[in-house]
Amino acid sequence: MRSFFSRLILFGILFHCYVGIRLIPALPVGRVWDAVMVLWLIASCVIVPQGMQRRDAGANGWRAVRAWAGLLEMGFFSFLLTLTVLRDVTLVLWAIATRVWAGAAAALPFDTWRTESAEVVLLAAFLMTAVGVYNARRRAPVVRVDIPIDDLPPALHGFTIAQISDIHVGPTIRKRYLDPIVDAVNRLDADMVAITGDVVDGSVSALREHTQPLSRLKGRHGVFLCTGNHEYYAGADAWIAEFRRLGIRVLMNEHVMLEHGGTPLLLGGVTDYSGGHFNEAHRSDPARAIAGAPAAARIRLLLAHQPRSAAAAEAAGFTLQLSGHTHGGQFFPWNFAVRVQQPFTAGLVRSGALWLYISRGTGYWGPPIRFAAPSEITHLRLVPGPAR
C-alpha cells in the first residue's frame, strides 16, 4: 500500500510539472506571478497527498483543515490537468490547421491562441471548482423515477422506495450534512427506504456521532441496507453491528418478505461485489439471497451496491436491482472514465429481463466536488408495465 501511494505521489509530481511547463510560459503575467505559480504548484504537490493521508475521519482542528485543503486542491488540480491536456490537443490541431489553411493563422495567430487558451484554462478550472463545490455541498435534490414492471400486481401499483446511496460520511461529511438528507427522505413518506452502500469513510468510533441521524429514517415497511466497498475499508463487521443498532435491517445475501396490500414482495440484499476479497463469508451471492423464495412473491427486488451484480441478479430471477457505487462519475472527466469499470453508469436501464436503477449517490467521495454528475435522493415508484 505504501509503495502504491509513493508511486501515486510520483505521478502527481510529474503531472504538476507538466501543467507548469505547459501553462506558466504562456501566461502574460510577468516574472513575479510566474514565481508565484511555481510556488503554488510546489505547494500543491505537498497539499494534495494530505487529502488522502488525512482521511482519518475523526480528524479535527488543524488536521481537518489539511484534509479539506488537500481534497479541494485535488479536485481543482484534476480540472486543471484535464483542461491543460485538452488545450494541448487543441493547439496541435490549430498548428495543423494553420499549415493547411493560411487564413487560420491570419484570423488568430498561434501565439495569440496559445496565450489566450492558457488564460481560459486557468479561469475555467477555478469556475468549475466553484460550481462543483456548490453542487456537492448542497443537499441532494429529490429525483422521481417511475419503474414499469411487467405484470405488476394491482396492490403494488404505486409502491414507493426512497433510495439513498454513497453518502460517505467521513472527513468532510458530518452530521450537519446528513441531517437534512434524513429529513428529506422522511418527507417522502415512502413504503420502504433503501440504502445501497458506501455510507461511511471511517471507523465506528470516529463516526458514531455523525451517522446517528440514520436512526431517524422512516419507511412504512422499514429501512434496509446492503454493504458497499467502503464499509469493508472501514471495518464491515463493526459497521454492520452499528447499522443494526441504529434500527436498520442489513441484508447479507438474504431476503425478507414484505406484505403490501395483502400481496407479498420479496426484498433481497447482497454484500458488496468485492466483499469476498475482505472476508470469504461476505462473498456476494444473489442466488443465495433469493434462495427459498415463495412462488407467490412474483416481484423480487435486490439491493446490490455495484451495478456489476446485475448479470447474477438477472440469472437468479430478480425483477429490479437498486445500486449506487458509480457516483455517475462525480465530476468531469471521471463521468466518462467510470464506464470502463462498470457496465452501467447512472439512471434506469434494462439488463435483459432485469430493471436496474443506479443512483448517482447522495453525498460524494474525496474532493467535495460534483460537476456534470448531480447527487440525488431517489423516489422510486413501481408502475404497471406491458403485460407479458
TrEMBL record:
Q: Keywords of this protein's UniProt record, alphabetized?
A: Hydrolase, Membrane, Metal-binding, Transmembrane, Transmembrane helix
TM region(s), chain numbering:
7-26, 32-52, 64-85, 91-108, 120-136
Which SUPFAM superfamilies is this protein grouped with? Metallo-dependent phosphatases
In terms of InterPro entries, this protein maps to: Calcineurin-like_PHP, Metallo-depent_PP-like, Metallophosphoesterase_sf
Q: Which residue range or ranges hold the Calcineurin-like phosphoesterase domain?
A: 160-328
This protein's source sits in the domain of life called Bacteria
Q: What PANTHER family does its record include?
A: PHOSPHODIESTERASE YAEI (PTHR31302:SF31), TRANSMEMBRANE PROTEIN WITH METALLOPHOSPHOESTERASE DOMAIN-RELATED (PTHR31302)
Q: What is this protein called?
A: Metallophosphoesterase
